[in-house]
UniProtKB/TrEMBL annotation:
Keyword Oxidoreductase annotated: yes
Ranges of residues in domain Aldehyde dehydrogenase: 28-490
Family affiliation: Belongs to the aldehyde dehydrogenase family.
Protein name: Aminomuconate-semialdehyde/2-hydroxymuconate-6-semialdehyde dehydrogenase
Gene Ontology MF, one: oxidoreductase activity, acting on the aldehyde or oxo group of donors, NAD or NADP as acceptor
Gene3D superfamilies linked to this entry: Aldehyde Dehydrogenase, Chain A, domain 1, Aldehyde Dehydrogenase, Chain A, domain 2
Keyword annotations: NAD, Oxidoreductase
Annotated source species: Neobacillus bataviensis
Active site: 266
Stored CDD domains: ALDH_F8_HMSADH
DNA repair keyword on record: no
């Protein structure tokens, strides 16, 4: 019989490129001409340069955004005209999904299966959702019979907003902020992560093609303490939409305080995944594989603390470990792999340091715990399951943001609720049980912004998304995003 060779490596249709700023509708170099290198996380080779922005570049971008807000056509357009342009951005992104997915995988090291399935389609969906949402949303109104008056809320855009972005889902999360900001009529200055500049840069050309007027969206590359800090302090920026680490959120808040900016923060998590004994273990294992290792564990709602009721602890660990061992790590463009590389050396070193901490703390590596054999280059780490640690462990308390989970047994509902709440973070949790009353009871007792019952990362864009405690400030999604990017005036009319 003739053997047919199955080709599993996708031939890229994209090439890495040098990234410039985009200010007032033009791609430009930094005022001082400075650049930094963009490194391929799979080969560890430099594959491009990025303009390195300073306060001077941010100032030019803010000036362009302010002019566009005050004098340009954007503010004079009807809601329907703006909605059509925003919808067109979504259409172009949808038509160019493969290019976007490949660029994202190239820049972040994430597997193409994930960027094709999540990053690229979600970027398009964010524009389509807010294009529709903005033309259907109403306003609040109260008939005051005591004073014979009518009160209604009139909303206007807040002005120029700064969007400071992370590297884990670069275009998906940027568009999650940009689409509602544009829908509300704001103009924007973007600072993407220095680790993943490519898809944000590519988006700028797409915005132009869709008809977004010059100056409405501006982008400055660079590092947080310089370009990011200049956004925090700029007096003409009215609000900042930020996604990133808790510690960075605190710095932004401190630097933005003197100019009293509106702030929307989506920050880190240390999310508990609680599994009661009455579940279908196969179903739970299948989803727990995703909630643990999707995007190399670099999704803010990944469940890295897994609590399992003692009766099924051993069986769960065995089945979970067996499925985890089947995951293949390697080239993100090889479709026979499941997991790609971590984004950069700095993050790889951080995640590896937690493997050392786990060892020192007496943890048992059920799977992983090292670089995959045979992969000498690239920031790859095996999917790792650790047992034998408790809530005192740094691996259980601190956000690692990599393919590492701890599994811990529990004996009672009260005990697991206490453990789940024993953290300064409160982004999300997942509860697995077929007892409907217990599911609701536990979800209401854990202090976090999101609770998934018998599912994970199921997203309806109309619902409030975000974290409580140290995990964030405010909510986004549907009316929550709308409220952030608009300011309300109450108009009281005597009848
Ligand atoms: P980070 O905080 O290191 O960087 C995020 C952005 O902030 C980058 O653009 C960076 O240059 C900029 N920055 C750094 N210092 C700054 C400063 N002083 N002023 C202004 N900007 C500054 O975060 P990261 O490592 O890129 O992203 C990973 C983190 O993001 C994780 O903690 C993850 O949980 C979190 N995250 C949260 C959500 C959510 O929805 N809650 C979603 C995705 C990621």
């Amino acid at each position: 019989m003739v053997q047919v060779e199955t080709k599993t490596v996708v031939e890229p249709i994209v090439k890495p490129f040098d990234c410039l700023h985009y200010i007032d509708g033009k791609f430009v170099e930094s005022v001082d001409g400075k650049t930094f290198n963009n490194v391929n996380p799979v080969t560890e080779e430099v594959y491009g340069t990025v303009a390195e922005g300073s306060a001077a570049d941010i100032d030019l971008a803010v000036k362009a955004a302010k002019r566009a807000f005050e004098e340009g056509p954007w503010g004079k357009m009807t809601v329907n005209e703006r909605s059509r342009i925003i919808c067109k951005v979504g259409d172009i992104l949808e038509a160019r999904q493969e290019e976007i997915a490949q660029l994202e995988s190239l820049d972040t090291g994430k597997h193409l299966k994930f960027s094709r399935h999540v990053d690229a389609p979600r970027a398009a969906a964010n524009f389509h959702f807010f294009a529709d949402y903005m033309i259907s949303i109403g306003t609040e109104a109260y008939q005051d019979e005591t004073h014979n008056a009518l009160n209604y809320g009139y909303r206007r855009p807040i002005g120029v907003v700064g969007l400071i972005q992370p590297w884990n889902l670069p275009l998906f999360l940027l568009t999650w902020k940009l689409a509602p900001a544009l829908a509300a009529g704001c103009t924007v200055v973007i600072k993407p992560s220095e680790l993943t500049p490519m898809t944000a840069t590519r988006l700028m050309g797409i915005l132009k093609e869709a008809g977004v007027p010059d100056g409405v969206v501006n982008l400055v590359h660079g590092f947080g303490p310089v370009a990011g800090s200049a956004i925090n302090k700029h007096p003409d920026i009215a609000g900042i939409g930020f996604i990133g680490q808790v510690s960075t959120g605190a710095k932004i808040m401190a630097e933005a305080a003197p100019t009293l900016k509106k702030l929307s923060f989506e920050l880190g998590g240390k999310n508990p995944n609680i599994i009661f004994a009455d579940v279908d273990i196969d179903e739970v294992v299948a989803t727990t594989i995703r909630s643990s290792f999707t995007n190399q564990g670099e999704v803010c709602v990944c469940g890295s603390r897994i609590y399992v009721e003692r009766q099924i602890f051993d069986e769960f660990v065995e089945r979970f470990a067996s499925k985890t061992r089947e995951l293949k790590v390697g080239d993100p463009f090889d479709m026979s792999n499941d997991q790609g590389a971590l984004v950069a050396k700095v993050h790889y070193d951080k995640v590896m340091s937690y493997l050392k901490i786990a060892e020192e703390e007496g943890g048992t590596f059920v799977t992983g715990g090292k670089r995959p054999d045979g992969l000498d280059k690239g920031y790859f780490i095996e999917p790792t399951i650790i047992t034998g640690l408790d809530d005192r462990s740094r691996c259980v308390r601190e956000e690692i943001f990599g393919p590492i989970v701890t599994v811990i047994p529990f004996d009672s509902e009260e005990e697991v609720i206490e453990a789940a709440n024993n953290t300064r973070m409160g982004l999300s949790n997942t509860i697995w049980t077929n007892d409907i009353r217990r599911a609701h009871r536990v979800a209401q007792k854990i202090v976090s912004g999101l609770s998934y019952i018998n599912c994970w990362f199921v997203r309806d864009l109309r619902t409030p998304f975000g974290g409580t405690k140290d995990s964030g400030l405010g909510r986004v999604g549907g009316s929550h995003s709308w409220e952030f990017y608009t300011e309300i005036t109450n108009i009281c009319v005597k009848l």
